[in-house]
Amino acid sequence: MEQSAIISVRNLTKTFGDFIAVNNISFEVAKGEIFGFLGANGAGKTTAMKMLIGISKPSSGQASVAGFDVSHESEMVKKNIGYMSQKFSLYDDLTIKENITFFGGIYGLSRKQIKEKTALLVQELELEEVINQLVSALPLGWKQKLAFSVALLHEPKIIFLDEPTGGVDPITRRQFWEMIYAQAHKGTTIFVTTHYMDEAEYCDRVSIMVEGKIEALDSPKNLKKHFKVDSMNEVFLKLARNIE
């Protein structure tokens, strides 16, 4: 595996009995890259992500994330990544401040660090007036922004985002992507799954999974050029038809 790649995957496979959920995939992600991991529901992208974040062991193949082997050093992988799940990942019955404190503790931050991070996060998101409100009172878009910021509390090298903008309005989606760009500019690697094909345009490179295999991997510009189309949605449709 190349040392320059912060995520390196070789022939990664996951089977459940006779069913092959992830079929011999290989790719690399560079430091600071925004890497889109696309595919229809059931394509295998969530299963692949679970292997990369250290919560599911590969059936075969190998992968390293932030320099650690996902099969044998999964705890070190978890310490060096941030993760935001498709379903909202904070606690509705805790306040904003309590959520930040709780997750800061899980990430191993000291009380002083948690206090400093809380002040900075609340200022950046302009949440000073609602810091002691329950998270359940926040609009979905604000919940997602807060969850993203909390996943970055421990300054991970990589953040994995699983369908982070599902169900939010277009303006909030754009604001969320501005946060992603800002974080990537600081050197954080972003690994994001999405089913919004227009969001694929925001990524440096994208891979498209179909039935457990990576069927295309390149920059959005190059993929549109290769398939002779004007949008990533057309790339996806054309690729699906070609495979059929």
Automatic annotation (TrEMBL):
Pfam families attached to this UniProt entry: ABC_tran
Superkingdom, taxonomy of origin: Bacteria
GO terms of molecular function: ATP binding
Family matches, as InterPro entries: AAA+_ATPase, ABC_transporter-like_ATP-bd, P-loop_NTPase
Name the record gives this protein: ABC transporter ATP-binding protein
Keywords assigned: ATP-binding, Nucleotide-binding
Domain ABC transporter per the UniProt entry, residue ranges: 7-236
Organism whose genome encodes this protein: Flavobacterium keumense
